[in-house]
Amino acid sequence: MDDMLKDFVVEAMDLAVNVEEHLLALERDPNNKETLNAVFRSFHTIKGGAGFMGLPALVAACHLTENLFDALRTGAAPVTPIAIEAALQASGFVADQLTDLSNGARPDQLASMPDSLERILVNAIEGKGDAPAKVAAPAPAPVAAAPAVASPAAAPAAAVSTSAPGADGLDWEAMYVSVIPPGTYTPAEKPAAAAPVAAAEHAAAPAPAAHAPAAAKPAADAGADRREEKVQEFRAASAPAKEDSIRVDAVKLDALLEVAGESVQAANQAAVLLERLLQFKFEGPAATLMATLTETLERASRYSAELQRATLATRMQPVGRLFQKFPRLVRELAKDLGKDVELTIEGAETEVDRVVVDSLYDPLVHMLRNALDHGVESPEDRLAAGKPSKAFISLKAWQEANSVMIVLQDDGKGMDPHALRRKAVQKGLISESGAPTDEEAYQLVFLPGFSTKEVASSVSGRGVGMDVVKTAVEKNRGAIHIDSSLGHGTKFAIRLPIELSIVPTMLVSTSGAALALPMAVVQRVVELPDNFMNVGGAPVLKDQGRPLPVRSLASALGYEACSEKVGIVVAAPQPYILAVEAVDGTADLVIKPMTAISVDGITGTARSAEGELVLVVGLSFLMDGCRGTLKVAA
């Protein structure tokens, strides 16, 4: 794919995603003129670029959809469910064509526009379908039936063509309209010519006499309309717009972040060496040189930290880029399942590392599909349970300390922990005594092969979805927690580090090993006594009036026993105290993932300021109470 076509595909795919979001908003608020205009502009822009790139099927689909939205925004056609459905189908066709191009297909290999898509678009333009046309609208004009009709840009062109040239012989109004975005300028009304021509072009409800001026000069107007359309298409496709951003290859950003992280690490090591060097006595010129060296290293350290922060900022993206794909998915799937579901989204502006945004799409799709199939009841069942027939699913994101929280919650039937245990035992995934608490029972849904459905459907039931969710979250050094109330709904809470490569940590040591704990789960440090209370055979310590279990980090990781005198209160779903030998401070570490080997509880490695190798304890491991993932029963 050449660079120009590649740029067009990237820009057009962004527009196509925004179109779907606008269409679903329009379904809720059909009279929103701003949304109608936004969809019209998006299809017009894609059509212009597609024409410039020689993509006839895209041009045809966008042209008809553009005509539809011109009719909708002028009132010539009503905003009906069939109009929204037609536009969604057109948007899907556009997305398919762009995806094929992105995957390497040549323009001449693309499919042509389906006849069914053309029919539904024409019906929507003519006001046919499941809602009657407005009383004021006459029989539809044949503007949408022919494939070579003029674009909606023709309306302003027709109006402008009636304006008189200025004293210098130039039609300044026409030239102004040709270089501004469509729909942003309304020419001043002309007493006899402009209004009737525009009205006839849009098939509105004009007075009978209004047809005469329109018919008086068809050839001249058609030529002007066609010229204006070509000017608008070329401008949309090729005119360089002023941009505040540029596209940079992600590989280059990753390399820049790697260099920035190493520079910070080098600056920290230099600071440690300098501190040790200053323990010696320097006199005369040597003392002056040491003072200058100290100042220079401080400046270098400050600039390397700024470089690191600026580089990280280039990788941050709003989760809205991910969330905006889901309303269409929920709408289509709810329709297939015969359920009435509304998805609400909050916190779309929350920023997170681009790697997280890219890798969370599939997990969130699995979670939404399960919520729709398993969690949300049918309208009849909801009414029988005393609930509204419409179900609600919410998707929220927000920043919390050094983490981002993503919560998916439904108001469905909830999960029964007893039923989950029975099903897991029946499938041989756990023993009879496995998953004793409700929290552990909820975690059973993440086991490979686990499903509560007896018969697999096209949506779920094969037990290959939720384990993908947990794996993807843990791969990004995150943790997932489930909270459910039988009859009231289920909540999935995902906690992820905002930045994947550089993580604020607490440095600890135990059994001779240097370890780092993510600060996202550290509440405070407490001193441990020589003797503990025992509850059920397990050590317990009171912290701020509440008894918390004490767990040994050395024991959890399989290290040799040692004298652990320091406790770290961990902010997990079930809080506990983590016992370590010593706390050595805090540091922002550049984390390198472990790829060659897999160690339970360890998610990566880093270098301390002294250059010592540090093992990073996984966030998910800590959130699960320093217990490994549930194992399949032997």
UniProtKB/TrEMBL annotation:
Phosphohistidine-modified residues are H44
- Ranges of biased composition (kind: Basic and acidic residues): 223-233
Concerning Pfam families, the annotation shows: CheW, H-kinase_dim, HATPase_c, Hpt
Name of the top EC class for this enzyme: transferase
Q: Which superkingdom does the taxonomy of this entry point to?
A: Bacteria
Q: Which keywords accompany this UniProt record?
A: Kinase, Phosphoprotein, Transferase, Two-component regulatory system
Question: What reaction(s) does this enzyme catalyze?
Answer: ATP + protein L-histidine = ADP + protein N-phospho-L-histidine
User: Where does the HPt domain lie?
Assistant: 1-105
Keyword Transferase in record? yes
Entry EC no(s): 2.7.13.3
Residues in domain Histidine kinase?
290-500
| Region called Disordered, residue ranges | 204-238
Per the record, where are the segments of Low complexity compositional bias? 204-222
List the protein's name. histidine kinase
